[in-house]
# Entry
Amino acid sequence: MTEVNVHAPDGYRILIAPGLMDSAGGYVREVTKASKAVIVSDDNVYPLYGAKLTKSLGEAGFSVSAFVFEHGESSKSLITYERALRFLSRAGAGRSDAVIALGGGVAGDLAGFAAATYMRGIDLVQIPTSLLAAVDSSVGGKTAVNLGGLKNQIGAFYRPKLVICDTDTLNTLPEAEYINGCAEVIKHAVIGSEEMFDELSRLPVHKQYEHVITRCVRMKAEFVEADEHDTGARMALNFGHTAGHAIEAASKYSIRHGEAVAIGMAIVARAASAFGYCPAELPDKLDALLKLYSLPVQTDYDARTLARTALSDKKRRGSRLTLVLPRSLGEYSLESIEARDFEKWLRAGGVK
Ligand SMILES: NC(=O)c1ccc[n+]([C@@H]2O[C@H](COP(=O)([O-])OP(=O)(O)OC[C@H]3O[C@@H](n4cnc5c(N)ncnc54)[C@H](O)[C@@H]3O)[C@@H](O)[C@H]2O)c1
# Structure
């Protein structure tokens, strides 16, 4: 088992290994005085892992119940959030009880926000079961629900007490979700480690889950420790996300997050090379790795449409954009640009 620690006033451990679900209850027992444990999970994940987790929590002395919601992003809503709170209340959960998020990023964000706000905050444990949740959303303490079409508009920074990543659960992940998570893995390699970039080229992520997740989580933990509230260094994790979010939004979210981020990373790397920030071979190497993982590197949307979409988002946040530019594999810099220049960057990145 690998353990990564997030150092903070209320620091927490991230445990990563195959087969951890069987012993999850014991680890949860170490971090909470709760007598009730309420699992929050979706209707894909709960039938697969709910019984095992319930048994393990029961053996550790918890009285266990489960709030199971319909899978998918549309459940990251105020309606499901209210249903979760009502469930906690009906289950008699008190201030010292605990919420256990079991699932992908949707379960983690929804359960996290419910835990952050129920009775002004009760204990939270994250058990990520998607690759994206394992390498990204379960670590860092961001919790949220959407406000209609507006992503993550209502939320809170709220640290889990513990993160348990049983890599065996990733074996049931649908192929498309695996590919989605690989985009975030590749992002970590480009900004943080050339060695990891090479490892990903040599051996697929699914053949080295524990190792890859550990590397990503270590990197993310360092960013979070330096900048918990995402106003400085943590922005590096947004590599590819400015263009990626514009592509996702322009497609009305029919393009998956990972695919959009892959295209966004490819665009910004090409633009960084065109403007002399990184060597010419970097975008080619990145394109090759993304394609190896069946991820796209081009978009049919034009630069004007994408820039407008990004700027309409920016209206709420000011007239400048921070771009994360690769300088070499494993190194990046943050560049603040005028939002109106974004279209020029997109064109330099090969967008028509
Ligand atoms: N809090 C953060 O810091 C943060 C960071 C990145 C993304 N997010 C959020 O995460 C969400 C996306 O996360 P996601 O991609 O995990 O989506 P998700 O939770 O919807 O999971 C994707 C799909 O995979 C299924 N699934 C998950 N684990 C499975 C398993 N082991 N076996 C079989 N099926 C499984 C789910 O039921 C779902 O259908 C978005 O809402 C995004 O905003 C949050």
Q: What stands out?
A: The mean pLDDT is 96.
